[in-house]
Task: structure prediction
Amino acid sequence: MKIKDISKIGLGCYALSGAYGKVDVDQYKQVLRRGFDLGINFFDTADTYGETAERVLGEALSDVREEVFISTKVGVSKGEKPFLSRDRVIEACKRSLARLGTEHIDLYLVHFDDPGTPVEETVGAMEYLQDQQMITHYVVSHIPTHRIQEYIKKGKPSFLMFEYSPVARDAQRDLFKLIQEHDLNSLAFSVTGRGILSGNITRQHRFAEGDIRNMDPLFKYARFESALRISEKMKDVGHKHGMSPVQVAIAWVLSHPEITCALTGPSTIEHMEENAASVDFLIPREDLEEIHDFLDMEEERTKRDDIKIVERLLNAPLDRESGFNDLVYVFETAVNRGWVGEDEIMPMFMELFKVREEPKVPLMKEIQYRLREMIFN
Ligand SMILES: NC(=O)c1ccc[n+]([C@@H]2O[C@H](COP(=O)([O-])OP(=O)(O)OC[C@H]3O[C@@H](n4cnc5c(N)ncnc54)[C@H](OP(=O)(O)O)[C@@H]3O)[C@@H](O)[C@H]2O)c1
Result:
């Protein structure tokens, strides 16, 4: 199959990691299969989503394997630093092939950056896997832009994968330019804003323990307030055309010619069918312009609010419960707003992330101090 045959909507298996709470594995398999029946042929998973996530995907699609694109990822495993050395990439690929029950992976992704391994080495491993026909394409995801540029210069990635939705537009700042300049394809993930663009998540909503959204900056402070307003905007536009807010959000992502496929991760058939139906909705030009202006306005407003919030969080007493999540908010905001470089701040973020299960107040206080120095001095 050719890249041009990839469906506009894809399904991902991140939820099988438990990131969005408990999932019924059999139901998830049915969601994937029903997606295929509706014309979806792009399916994404990762070794780090847990063994089940690759096995379930392989099992759900085993009899239609040659009619679908399967993508999976390498480079990180729980509790470890990212790794992309030649041997580990090749080993991880073999294990993913076994779990997926397939002889080849259509798209193999560099999941996270490993600054300790030269890009040439990882590219070499990917090219070896291509020569062995274990993978068809390789892809870069979730890594700083200058490292993506290095991959483009030293190798031949066919795709980029990044978050993109009305509540996460950073990719359009520099990744869209790379896509155009180098004629790349792209996979946008979390296009429903991890559920917030459905309009079902309110200020009163409480996520279950262990749900990643408890520490996700999108669900906190200025970004959450903005996401709620954006979700309301999607609802208003959808109302005019008989579409739901989430369908407007997905159609908006797909209105960008830079996007090859929009990935969503629903765990119910109802949500999946709703998302799949957005493929036929073309947002009229005047609505696109209205959404564009609204999102620009929201970004300006959130930027102003974020400065005040970050200043407050970096000067407030830290408590064990909320301190960790507040520091994550600061880290992500500082990078997204371009106040600090991702490479510069990443080691400190990893230091904090290591103690995620049991955050220690003295360490958090020290990181708070260092962040204050880095951002405001
Ligand atoms: N490269 C990377 O680092 C990376 C990072 C993140 C994701 N991804 C890939 O991209 C895929 C998609 O990302 P994602 O899972 O974050 O997508 P997503 O669809 O934005 O988020 C999934 C969450 O949104 C909810 N949702 C989806 N459709 C809905 C609807 N119509 N109505 C109400 N709620 C809805 C789901 O709820 P229900 O469970 O109730 O349906 C679930 O809680 C992932 O599964 C993964 O394969 C890659």
